[in-house]
Design brief:
The protein is of the alpha+beta class and 94 residues long. The protein has a 4-stranded mixed β-sheet with strand order 1-2-4-3, covered by helices on one side. α1 links the parallel β1 and β2. The longest helix is centred in the N-terminal third of the chain and has 17 residues. It is globular, with a radius of gyration of 13 Å.
Length: 94
């Protein structure tokens, strides 16, 4: 949150189906860990539903990140990097 770590790579999930997004996110995080990348930006979009609830990919992305073994922390991206439509993810070293 303090900006100590800057994203070294980006992943765009916006517009994908639930299954496509989950597989792509898992593969992306695994590749990032193997390539010794410590911070990534995952763009999922804001996806506000017509009933005012949070978008599906936004909530699912956060859920999947909590389940990934190499994710140390994540937070909403700053406004200039996607704001509420993205998360910065800090990864553990392999």
């Amino acid at each position: 949150r303090r900006g100590v770590w800057r994203p070294q790579d980006d992943l765009y999930l916006h517009g994908l189906s639930r299954d496509q997004a989950r597989i792509l996110l898992q593969d992306f995080l695994q590749q990032a860990v193997q390539n010794h990348i410590r911070c990534v930006n995952v763009i999922h979009g804001k996806g506000w539903r017509s009933d005012g609830r949070e978008g599906l990919l936004k909530s699912l992305t956060r859920h999947w990140l909590t389940q990934h073994a190499h994710v140390l922390a994540f937070c909403e991206a700053p406004l200039n990097a996607g704001g509420g439509g993205a998360v910065w993810v800090l990864l553990a070293a392999p």
